[in-house]
Design a protein that fits this description.
The chain has 368 residues and is of the alpha/beta class. It is built from 13 helices and 8 strands. The protein has one domain: Rossmann fold, CATH 3.40.50.150.
Length: 368
């Protein structure tokens, strides 16, 4: 696909603090799994040798969803290693709102930060995709990424009847899974080169669990099917063209547990040969916080108004990218606003079953 649109060219989480405020569930994922990272740190038993300790948050968005987890981990590092300078590197794509990230980390927003509580701490940003090399070889001690590495470098083919690979089968599904496998292996190879011996990766990835569940598809109304139905409906009523529908494809691959683990279990795979080992793997489902709130307050209009922003915070760039560049920016924005308003109306009219439950595969890997 020589003319494929690169994911880096258009993808970024919604900025100006929108992402952290809307995507509470992503924070719950990291907060609830912080113990996995702290356990890995205990196994690392980093020496108090005065050398710089480096941690990364890869695919950080504005940093608000990981702020508490990162704070807990870095405070543990400081307690174990009083003499070691700590280098915290936040990474994301070039279009990411790094200004908002640093405002959050430095405590300039209403989100509480760890920054002033940890001595000898140095915080940096890296506007480089995790599909590329980000830090010098052998310099990384603890790499973390959550809710991010399902993104692939480019869409391998145009989906004919859906907007996401989870709604496809046959050759289209095979193409996405093949592209996902290549990108996953390359991402792990880059991290393995960057890790110091004994370093750990903590990767909390969107995926497909053992029961076939995935993000927004856990037994109720399927979120990606709803995306597709509403976007297709806008073709039918003339709001968008068929070509624009076909150009709207999420650059994502949701992997099974076996697909996640394959490069680390196959003796012949370059990742395993490079020294990366799988210490722990499991799947968990974290409930949609807005659906949980709705069970208490039972106000459908409120639920719809609070729920749609969490979908919009990460999906909006995909729908905007699908629209023709010949349309004025204001027109494209109006179309996308209409799309989310339709989704909100649907939820308000029939809220039962709508939820964006988070389905993740949690992995801890060691560099030997």
């Amino acid at each position: 696909m020589s003319q494929a649109l690169q994911t880096d060219d258009f993808m970024a989480m919604k900025g100006a603090g929108y992402y952290s405020k809307a995507t509470i569930g992503a924070k719950h994922v990291m907060d609830n799994a912080a113990g996995l990272i702290l356990d890995a740190l205990e196994r690392m038993d980093p020496p108090d040798n005065g050398a710089t300790f480096t941690m990364t948050d890869m695919g950080c968005a504005d940093g608000g969803t990981s702020i508490d987890m990162v704070g807990r981990v870095l405070k543990e590092v400081r307690g174990r290693c009083p003499s070691r300078p700590i280098q915290m590197i936040y990474t994301d794509l070039p279009r990411n709102d790094f200004s908002q990230l640093f405002q959050i980390v430095h405590g300039l927003t209403d989100i509480e930060s760890y920054f002033t509580d940890i001595d000898d701490l140095y915080v940096y940003g890296c506007a480089t995709s995790f599909h590329q090399k980000m830090v010098p070889p052998g310099s990384l001690h603890l790499g973390h990424s959550a809710t991010a590495s399902h993104y692939i470098t480019e869409v391998p083919c145009s989906l004919q009847n859906h907007v996401h690979m989870v709604g496809t089968a046959g050759a289209e599904r095979d193409a996405f899974e093949a592209k996902g496998a290549v990108d996953w292996q390359n991402m792990l190879l880059n991290r393995t080169e960057e890790l110091a011996p004994g370093g750990r990766l903590a990767l909390f990835n969107f995926g497909i669990d053992e029961e076939g569940r995935y993000l927004g598809h856990t037994g109720g109304v399927s979120m990606f099917d709803t995306f597709n139905e509403l976007w297709r409906g806008m073709v039918d009523d003339g709001s968008i063209t068929q070509d624009e529908y076909l150009a709207t494809n999420f650059p994502q691959c949701y992997r099974t547990v076996d697909q996640f683990a394959a490069p680390l279990r196959d003796e012949a795979n370059p990742v395993r040969q490079a020294g990366l080992r799988l210490e722990h793997i499991e799947t968990r489902v974290v409930r949609c916080p807005f659906a949980e709130d709705f069970e208490r307050h039972r106000d459908a209009e409120r639920f719809a108004a609070e729920y749609i922003p969490t979908l919009r915070s990460w999906s909006e760039p995909v729908f905007l990218a699908g629209l023709s560049g010949g349309r004025p920016g204001s027109e494209r924005a109006a179309i996308v606003n209409d799309f989310y308003q339709r989704y909100q109306r649907r939820v308000a009219d029939a809220p039962r079953g709508h939820a964006m439950d988070y389905v993740h595969c949690y992995m801890i890997c060691e560099k030997i």
